[in-house]
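Handout, page 2. Input:
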Amino acid sequence: MLSGLALAGIYTVAFPYFLELLPSRMRGRAAVYLSIGWPIGVLAAVGVTQLLAGLGWHVVAIVSALAGLWVFAIRAWVPESPYWLAAQNRHDDAAAVLRRLGVDVPDGTRFAVVAPERTGRPVELLRGRMLRITVLMLVVNFTFNWGYWGLQTWLPTLLQDKGLSMLASLGFVALSALFMIPGYVSASLLTGRFGRKKVFLPYVALAAISGIFFAYSSSMTELYVANFALAFFSLGAWGVWNTWNGEFFPTALRGTGYSWATAAQLVATSLAPLGGRPSPGSGDRVLHDDPVHHGLPGGGTALRRPAAGDRGP
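Output:
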């Protein structure tokens, strides 16, 4: 439970924080690349499990937790958000961060701070035109996470019913993670050229088609092909969505809005295991999967929103 609380907090902060360290023109491509950390982490987890499983799950858990030591590298190398520093009237510190990021900022610059009184207030997400954006964002986050996580919950049972051993199932997960990487890369390249919606919606549609193909696969070959297509398009769309989530809201509400998005995802991942029934005797077959990051669109909601550039810095 404590790990879940901590990971949800990290996930909520990471993307808005990263977006605020980038110029607007780079945010789409760069944020999708940030998402590539997910399949790389899956591959690392599968590798650790394979190498150390014979020593017991305690050893696997402890070695996996050592990834948290990366926080010391972040503390040493990653600067504070210049938006937050400016909101705290630390204009000299904000200017220093921007210079470190390659921006030419004259000495003595004072930054304009947009609506600082709204910072971190959830009620602001439900006022005026923000209400419609917030509701649509929550619906898409819920349905996006529901479908893919629902599949992943029952994937061990499906694979076991197809005759795969636990070792083969881990290999299946690892290969799926490999196909996520080109999905992210392709989405990153395309979203930088065509924008969010023109990439997100086709990837969502193709992910849904891949999910149907997966459900009706009649052979292991079809199962592999469908799952790889699902991983490619679903996670590519997810990388675009991570960027878009942070752009729905004005600067003062960016972190708060993203936290609501994460909450909607977690509600979906909590309920998804209740959406099906494993075959008899399969209750002990469990594979690890991330309860924060996955999503296949369970609905076709398209968002109409102002351009990100209309929302301030």
